[in-house]
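Researcher: Please translate sequence to structure tokens.
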Amino acid sequence: MQTTRALGSRYVLERQLGSGAMGQVWAAVDQRTGEAVAAKLLRPEFARDPEILTRFVQERSILLDLVHPNVVRVRDLVVEGEDLAIVMDLVQGADLRARLRSAGTLAPAEAARITADVLEALAAAHTGGVLHRDVKPDNVLLTDEDPPGVRLGDFSIARLAQETTVRMTGVLGTPDYMAPEIFTAETVSAASDVYATGIVLYELLAGRPPFAGGGTGYAVANRHVTAAPPPVPGIPPALDAVLQAMLAKEPDRRPPADAAAASLRDLLPALDGLPALPVAPEPTTWKAAASGPAPAFGVLGHRPVEELDPGRTNVKGAAPAAPELPAPSTGEASPWLASRPDEELASAQTQLRPRHAPAHAAPAEPEEPAARGRLRDRRTWLVAGGSLAAVGAVVGVVALVGSGGSAGDDRRGGGGGGAAAEALTVVGPSEQLPSGLSVVREGAYDAEAGTLTTTITWSAETALAGPLFEAVPAAEDGSACPDATWSVAAVRDVTPGVPVTACGWEVPVDVPAGSQVTASYTVPFELEDDGDVQGLRERLVEAGTATGSALDGLVATPVYAAQRLEDLEVQIDGTVRVSAPVGMVVVPVWRGTDGADNISVLFSSRNPQPTLLLQQLGGELEVRTDDCTGSLAFTDRVPYANTVGTACTVSVRLGEIEARSRSFDVLQNSAG
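Model: Translation complete:
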């Protein structure tokens, strides 16, 4: 049975190796040379996007010129009809993520060797003016040789993914591997790639990234900026010194990729024979970094997505000249800069800046002491969590209101006689949930009354039915739940499985389509320092974390569906034959559960009317086929088998979630 198909005029796709959010990976054959290659066939929507297509073609020569023994070489870029594909070397082996899953941690010598190979690949890319922008274990391939060869891939895929997801969904990058300056200064540089590689080295040694842990994507971002990497018990001091240099908060204090690689290779004889370290436990507390690129306030924001140019791969492209980087806050000269020529340093610090200078740039004159630590405008920073899911949008807004002043005042009287702030308002992290529900919390602290009023804003593109759940954390672990006064008729939650200690409330609100709804509650609250912005911010983060943690304990039940939906599962029944509907059921996967909820059906092809659960989640379930187009047709979201086909799949999309069925064949009707 024919399973191959042509890709352009030169390649034949032979078998599918895998698939992901960007498209499918195929083993293919170059008909001109007979060589086996890999083809990443991107989803058709990319070929229909003029901006993506233009970038794709313009950067073809850049990617084709990137040749190095440790780089998965791009051989060709195919643009034909709705086919948009990247043809590259076929690497026989597995990725570094799979190696970590099986081993837990790697021996120091192996970790250093792999990291050095990645750094040398990056050094070649940086010399050619190319940034990777998405270094992580998933993009490092290990050959099946002994010892395994190392190949860094997905330069072009990373660029296209970021370009598309930023413009379409507001997501940029993976927080676990993103450098501090991305969050604080909106810049990406060769030094950012080195930082990400340092995170990978840490993960190879410790079994976990240094700043991963509980909380939203914002919490992870804030740790990159303000926290020191937790020590790795047992790491050789010389190896730790190189690791700490790569993880320096300031970009100009990190070694260039080639220097870091050389340092790691020099250590290999001393590391040889040392056993792998145990997996490091998740930290319970985070130690503040000695220095960093941001003020104590933490993660700043940036301009709206439409003002960014996140897709540029070429370091030396049309990006404006980078501003001079600030001197390291410690006052010490970086050992990596001492012997480097000025032109080399300038190249290592090349920044990708947004297209436009900020209209709200800070004034040249120094701020008065009373105004320090406050933002002068409202801006939003968007980051993505693992697998481009569940991310935090950080909205940095702080308003200090004193007696006789207003939230718009930027200055206070000198001489130390100014009135203490009576109100402090902070807008905390926003969560983008898989259902499409966005949640933002704003806290207003009244020092005189000793109260905190938290306003929650829920929004979504499609209508989501309530009630919604909100945890109102106790002031301290083990203490009684606080008395909360709500702006709506909220009641204490009594759902089985939600711990009483979560201090949960059932909030009777529905989220209108394309709009938002708010509710607020007031509780007794005291800050040790009336101007403690970070303390108030942490309270908002704690509320979001407590809300999610409480819902993780629920069994398979559709209660609080908009907040608990984590994934979908598409189930295909039995044998599929021509001239018959495909037996298909879509069921939810709830957060914190081990598998799909086969009782709470979202959609069934046997009864295509929207279920109550689907209506609660917006009702807009998209159904399509990814493969064997022509074999399947759809009526009212029900797939029908028209002709014989092989390796068919059905995909569904709801909110931010897309899921695919198992592969199946459409067989000839037995009666025929």
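Researcher: Any highlights?
Model: Residues 157-172, 292-421 have pLDDT under 50 and may be disordered.
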